[in-house]
Amino acid sequence: MAEKLVLIGAGMASGRLIELLLDKDPDAYDITLFNAEPRGNYNRIMLSPVLSGEKTYDEIITHSDDWYAENGVTTYFGCPITGIDPIKKVVSSPRGDVAYDKLIFGTGSEPFIIPVPGHDLPGVMAYRDLDDVEKMLVAARKPNAKAVVIGGGLLGLEAAAGLKEQGMDVTVIHLAGHLMERQLDPAAGYLLQRELESRGITVHIKGATSEITGDASVEGVKLDDGTLYPADIVVMAVGIRPSTALAKEAGLNVSRGIVVNDQMMTSDPSIYAVGECLEHREQLYGLVAPLYDQAKVLAKTLLGEEAAFQPVEISTKLKVTGCDLFSAGDFADGEDREEIVFRDAVRGVYKRLILRDDKIIGAVMYGDTADGGWFLQKIKDREDISEIRETLIFGPNFAQGVPADPLAAVAALPRDAEICGCNGVSKGDILSAIEGGANTLDAIKAKTKASTSCGTCSGLTAQVIQTSLGDDFKMPEADVICKCTDHSHDDVRKLIIAKELKTVQEVFQELQWKTSCGCHVCRPAINYYLVCAWPGDYVDDGQSRFINERVHANIQKDGTYSVVPRMWGGLTTPDELRAIADAADKYQVPTVKVTGGQRIDLLGVKKEDLPGIWYDLTQAGMVSGQAYAKGLRTVKTCVGKEHCRFGTQDSTGLGVKLEKAMWGAWSPHKFKMAVSGCPRNCAEATCKDLGIVCVDSGYQVVVGGAAGMDVKETELLAQVPTEDEAIELTCAFYQLYREGAQYLHRPYKWMAKVGLDWIKEQCVDDLENRKALADRFHYSQQFFQIDPWAERAKKGVDAHEFAPLADFTKVAAE
Amino acid sequence: MSEFVDIGALSDIPVRAARVVKTHHGCIAVFRTAQDKVFALEDRCAHKGGPLSNGIQHDESVTCPLHNWVFDLNTGQAKGADEGLVRTYEVKVDDGRILLHRSAIGLQVAAE
Question: What's the pLDDT tens digit per position in A604-637?
Fold first, then answer.
């Protein structure tokens, strides 16, 4: 016959205990659950997201009424225990007496209210349960409502951030010298304060509350120093105390909490405790991980198994969106301690490890907490870190040289992160499909439509599935960029956008590059992806560019350079030709050649002469022809109807317009264009990346040609009736290619991957999207249509590139 | 006379960049790494003579701009499948100044 188990308090620890008991031996006990709150168990640590509006109450329920019923647990909710008779083994409640064989205290804790004058006014509240949250939400509905939070610890700051999210004017008053002083050191506390202040929360450090003012209800909070903050509500979050009144009455041994041994047994062998109400080896516990450990130990004890609770190192994370902090262990300064500190002011990152005898004893991190778990494990294991000390602070990837887990970045994406842009599929949609039973890539694609259009997200989709299904799912082989990473080009592009990565180092850090600063393969690719993703925002990294793009000229086999000025649409003038001839003379250019793209190439210019020759050419009104760029190269034209007897449109004029609109843009690879005035196609438009063939009725825009290693004829993208439409479609196609293709893929390679039909859907059929693409292109262009030659020849940009550091050929000649 | 010659300030070379020192015996490429270490190598790739000072630098290696040979800045040894050696020269940083060994510049003859 089952023993009678009575539980007081439906909190997280007791909830876990019930689960464990039912799981291990559902018939061992008849369970009766009392709770003073009129509801069952919910995830109390998720109160903050409920307050900030990110979650609803329903979403944080862990055990519904139905769950208790299905599992045979008798519940008395909204029903506080009024007395316990440990001799008769009976508890009393307003709804009658219940006998027990085993009694469990899960009474939790009570918020501590500072007994200042006015602490009992209406409007003063704690931050403890759902009722408190509801009171706060009601207060926040009043326009311009003001809240003062007393206590800048974990709970107080979560309350402050949540109230701010609800539109309240929030002030935090904190007694200590910096926020969260039990978890953070002053430096991290400062970064946190700065972050909260930037959100408009007022933070008053070293503030001692002397009085809560108001007549019928709260009106303000007065501090020792005389400062008065007006307030409609005051939230007290200065700490908690174990709820022990009932235990004391029952005659149990109570110190600060209900005293238990390693088996969670109180001074009465039939009575146990779990959770925040207990005291174990003079230690109180308030964080969820050790409470769950206690539940595990108690479940075993109750089922007659051996178990003992061991105090463990605990870590803390703040549940305020956007404030990333982590702390664990002991981080006070001390004689016998050493520390390793890492700061990145730009990213607002601070990491500090505290070492004693070659072991980590504490860790504080702010801004980037990805490695927190790894450090915590080292603290727990008391691992000797002397071997990896030099790179320890950089985390597991650098310190151990083990292959990084490329899934970590994907696992860290929020549920609303977009995975498939074509079909608007989020990470959450994919996870829901898996929860709904889909367990293969094909099933998930069929269900969500993820990666069924352009397909560039198929790698990312697969990774999301793997984070959920683990080893049950076999990843398709992906093309990784290079040996520095396990990510493919497509994944990196999408993650740059999804995670808003804006520097090369950030990409390496967040996507867990295996090398400290990449290599000549990945760095130029990443630099381009950032240039494309964040025009005007990203600062181009010259050292991640191939030399030609760094010095804006083409390196030749002997280390000299070639210089090609732009000739718009292949047009030039006698003045330009004279200037080119003069420059060629002046700088003793050995070879002058006409290129296939209708330009003049000055070959064999010494590197140090580049700024000089550019100066002369820019004086004649010429700009860089960007013949070196993975970007817009040339627009070749025929003479068109102005001169030609077969010409149907002004092909030269259109070529010049296109070149004026598109010069300066960077793309995954070089991009060559041509405009022919009639289908005789003298400008050879049908082997270009994009060509336009004029006909009587309009303009045929053809794409995906090549005349290099591969020779490809273009395919028709669309015929449009006007010049303006031809230009818009051209810009839209170019932008689609810029945003989607992998680095060093010419359009024809990208087209083979995504398909011409998909491209047509994007920029031919969907006029709105065509315009949006063109608009994005023009927006980006404002930052890139700056002549790099003039910048270097006249403004001294990158002067270090062109002059030697030192020249001893002259010294020794003396 | 000091064995080393001051060739400029560390800050004259951007991080992860290189600059050239011209001598009668050809150019020397002086590299500054992300960790502010400095290396001096002959500015001629062992393969086809490409100017290594114009390459992309990564960790303590440089990739030649002509045909992507990669050299270890510490040893001048080609990495991977390629075989070749580029001369390295003694160089150090003292108080923010870059000091190159005199022998690199071929000055010992002229100076004495």
Answer: 999 999 999 999 999 999 999 999 999 999 999 9
Chain B CB contacts of A557 under 8 Å are 48, 50, 66
How many whole angstroms separate alpha carbon A771 and alpha carbon A805? Answer: 49
Residue position matching structure tokens 């991009």: A671
Residues A184-197 have a mean pLDDT of 82
How far apart, in whole angstroms, are the C-alpha atoms of residue A443 and residue A461?
A: 12
Q: How far is B10 from chain A (nearest CA, A)?
A: 10
Check CB contact of B104 with chain A, cutoff 8 Å: no
Q: Which residue has the tokens 């293709």?
A: A741
Does the beta-carbon distance from B65 to A804 stay under 8 Å?
no
Q: Name every residue whose Cβ is closer than 8 Å to that of residue A696 and which is 6 or more positions away in sequence.
A: A648
**Averaged over A374-392, what is the pLDDT?**
82
Taking only residues 15 to 54 of chain B, the set having a beta carbon closer than 8 angstroms to any beta carbon of chain A reads 15-17, 19-24, 27, 30, 34, 48-51, 54
Question: Residue A137 is inside which H or E element, if any?
Answer: helix A130-140
Alpha carbon separation from A395 to A335, A379, A391 (Å, rounded)? 25, 14, 7
* Mean pLDDT over each residue of chain A, to the nearest integer: 88
pTM: 0.56
The answer to whether A295 and A17 have CB atoms below 8 angstroms apart is yes
d(CA A745, CA A481): 13
| pLDDT score recorded for residue A201 | 93
Q: Which residues of B fall within a CB distance of 8 Å from A804?
A: 19-22, 27
pLDDT tens digits, A296-332: 999 999 999 999 998 766 666 666 666 777 788 776 6
Give ipTM to 2 decimals: 0.91
Between chain A and chain B, how many beta carbons pairs sit less than 8 Å apart? 99
Hey, what long-range contacts does A794-797 have (CB within 8 A, 24 or more apart)?
Answer: A794/A615, A794/A618
Flag whether pLDDT at A576 surpasses 50. yes
Whether B106 contacts chain A with CB within 8 A: yes
Query: Cα separation of B7 and B29, whole Å?
Result: 12
Cβ distance of B58 and A547 shorter than 8 Å: no
Give the number of other CB atoms < 10 A from CB of residue A401: 11
The reply to whether residue B34 touches residue A516, judged by beta carbons under 8 angstroms, is yes
What is the DSSP track for A402-425?
PPP-THHHHHTS-TT-EEETTTTE
**A24-28, A46-50, A271-275: which has the highest mean pLDDT?**
A271-275
Q: What is the mean pLDDT of residues A94-112?
A: 92
CA-nearest of A473, A486, A543 to A513 is: A486
Compute the distance between CA of residue A271 and CA of residue A280 in angstroms, rounded to an integer: 15
- Interatomic CA distance for residues A328 and A352, integer angstroms: 11
The position carrying tokens 């998720």 is A46
Nearest CA in chain A to B30: A805
Residues of chain A whose beta carbon is less than 8 angstroms from a beta carbon of chain B are 515-520, 523-524, 542-548, 550-551, 555, 557-559, 607, 800, 803-809, 811-812
Q: Position of tokens 């790739």? A: B45
| Residue A229 burial (10 A CB sphere; 0-12, 13-18, 19+) | buried
Tokens of A9: 């308090």
Residue A646 has pLDDT above 70, yes or no: yes
Q: Is the pLDDT of residue A194 over 60?
A: yes
Question: Where do the H-state alpha helices sit in A264-330?
Answer: 288-302
Would you say B107 and A808 are in contact if contact means Cβ atoms under 8 Å apart?
yes
Contacts of A523 in chain B (CB under 8 A): 56, 58
Give SS3 for A690. strand
- Minimum-distance CB partner of B16 among A543, A804, A805: A543
Q: Which residue intervals of A199-302 are DSSP H helices? A: 245-249, 288-302
With a CB cutoff of 8 Å and minimum separation 6, the contacts of A213 are A118, A219, A220, A221, A222, A228
Q: What is the pLDDT of residues A111-124, one digit of tens each?
A: 888 889 999 999 99
